[in-house]
Amino acid sequence: AQTVTQSQPEMSVQEAETVTLSCTYDTSESDYYLFWYKQPPSRQMILVIRQEAYKQQNATENRFSVNFQKAAKSFSLKISDSQLGDAAMYFCAYRKNNNDMRFGAGTRLTVKP
Amino acid sequence: KAGVTQTPRYLIKTRGQQVTLSCSPISGHRSVSWYQQTPGQGLQFLFEYFSETQRNKGNFPGRFSGRQFSNSRSEMNVSTLELGDSALYLCASSLGRAADTQYFGPGTRLTVL
Questions:
Q1: A98–B56: do the CB atoms touch at under 8 Å?
Q2: Which residue among A44, A101, A105 sits closest to B105, beta carbon to beta carbon?
Q3: Contact A98 B102 (CB under 8 A)
Q4: Of A6, A50, B17, B33, which shows the fewest CB atoms inside 10 Å?
């Protein structure tokens, strides 16, 4: 079974600094999808960024980028120029074909002004 | 486009009762997934419906069931409620392909007394 591990239950970053959230996953598949979702306090979960496993290029969305290491089964999220609004729970997720999406336990990010 | 809506937003039930939660997906989305979110277990996948058929099912007891209607709206039902069923129940809709973004609703907060 595919599992997703986020080893950092909590992280903290100073406003305007950069922070990296870690995610590793376990799979024997070669083709799959990886996602980072953000869940702000008392607000809806939203997609931050997505990576297709067959693409070697790391995905980037404005201040958010990933470091996708397929062989190491690692998918970290880098947030640059952190803003107060980035404070949230961040979930890493894995999906293969149309199977169910598997989520990690989440990392709570605090942004200090 | 209107987002994913869930009703009711809050519910209080007692042990042994049953409950029905509703999810209205984004217009045009054919897939609806349900998740249970608790502080201890994190996000756990319940089931996914696609075009009125259950496509995936998580490891939950038979007390948890769902269905999807022809307009893609979905309901989930929990019978014989237990204290441990207290959780935030999230639904997410998408176009239905593995790579597609899942759009989450605000959730239904269920408290079982």
A1: yes
A2: A44
A3: no
A4: B17
Cβ-nearest to B42 among A52, A99, A105: A105
Distance from CA of B105 to the nearest CA of A (A): 6
* Closest chain B residue to the Cα of A41, Cα to Cα: B106
> What is the C-alpha to C-alpha distance for residues B70 and B112, in angstroms, rounded to an integer?
31
- Determine whether the interchain pair B101/A47 forms a contact, defined as Cβ–Cβ distance below 8 Å: yes
Cβ partners under 8 Å of residue B79, min gap 6: B18, B63, B65
Instruction: Report the largest interatomic distance among the alpha carbons of chain B, rounded to a whole angstrom.
Output: 39
Residues paired with A75 in a beta bridge: A68
Q: What does the pLDDT look like over B48-95, one tens digit per residue?
A: 999 999 999 999 999 999 999 999 999 999 999 999 999 999 999 999
3-state secondary structure of B36: strand
3-state helix, strand, coil in chain A (%, to 5): 5, 50, 45
* pLDDT tens-digit readout, B8-54: 999 999 999 999 999 999 999 999 999 999 988 889 999 999 999 99
Distance of CA B39 to the CA centre of its chain: 17
Residue A38: predicted pLDDT: 96
| Strand pairing class (A19-21; B5-7) | unpaired
- Taking alpha carbons only, the member of A79, A96, A106 closest to residue A5 is A106
Could you give the CA distance from residue B36 to residue A87 in angstroms, rounded to a whole number?
22
Please tell me whether residue B83 adopts helix, strand or coil conformation.
Answer: helix
